[in-house]
Specification:
This protein is mainly α and about 120 residues long. Keywords: Membrane, Transmembrane, Transmembrane helix.
């Protein structure tokens, strides 16, 4: 049996939830990067990296649900992932995003913060 990841229960909910969301987003972003690179170059190492990141993503997601609600963790993860994908596209692949895109990202980040803080009461 695979043990669940644990964060200290003495840490505030907001900190634990943010760590979980950031970890999920980072793993998902690694998987997205690996998929893009595998598609471009057909590198077996990128395929392996993508597969490992998705298995770890599932493990971290299941572990995060011990202390945070599904909606809170999922929304935060997706917001951070989208931010990461936009930055990765711009930095690595030269995709330009108009200013309104970054305004929308700011709104999503504010909504995420409200959701995380509001979920804790």
């Amino acid at each position: 049996m695979v043990p669940m990841l644990k964060l200290p229960s003495t840490w505030p909910f907001v900190l634990n939830a943010t760590i979980a969301m950031a970890g999920l987003a980072a793993l998902d972003l690694v998987g997205a990067y690996a998929a893009k690179e595998w598609m471009l170059h057909r590198s077996a190492s990128m395929l392996g990296l993508g597969m490992v990141s998705m298995v770890l993503l599932f493990w971290v997601y299941a572990s995060a649900l011990q202390f945070a609600e599904l909606a809170v963790v999922t929304f935060g993860w997706i917001v951070l992932l989208q931010l990461g994908v936009l930055v990765l596209d711009q930095v690595k692949y030269g995709v330009h995003h108009p200013p309104r895109t970054w305004v929308v990202v700011g709104i999503m980040m504010a909504a995420q913060g409200y959701l995380v803080i509001g979920a804790n009461g």
